[in-house]
Specification:
By secondary structure, the chain is of the alpha+beta class. The protein is 36% helix and 21% strand. It has helices at 32-37, 43-51, 57-65, 69-75, 99-106, and strands spanning 3-7, 12-17, 26-31, 93-97.
């Protein structure tokens, strides 16, 4: 139970994941390219399902309109984790919460 060292195969961003009812936040890294490939109306659901990151309000509208990696990062700026240094280039190494750790967080 813990974290795994992973390497980004595409540009990626770390987002805060803090499920309701918990006191602890963790950083979950997601591929920016994967988010941008998803239909605009389904992006927030993808982030919630994949990373436990809920997007709402103005950020949600901007997320739907994002066309580039820079647009995406700007749209979810308030949810971007301080544990990552902004947009991580392809090839970057990062720590990802393991499946056991995520299950513990979401229970």
């Amino acid at each position: 139970m813990g974290y795994e060292v992973k390497q980004a195969t595409t540009p990626a961003i770390g987002v805060w994941s803090k499920p309701k009812g918990t006191k602890t936040s963790v950083t979950v890294v997601v591929s920016v390219d994967e988010v941008l490939k998803i239909k605009p109306n389904d992006r927030a659901k993808y982030l919630k399902d994949t990373a436990g990151c809920e997007i709402s309000g103005k950020s949600l509208a901007e997320l739907k309109q994002a066309k580039t990696a820079v647009d995406l990062v700007a749209a979810i700026e308030r949810k971007v984790s301080l544990q990552t240094s902004g947009l991580m280039p392809s090839g970057s190494f990062y720590l990802q919460p393991g499946e056991e750790r995520r299950l513990e967080i979401y229970l």
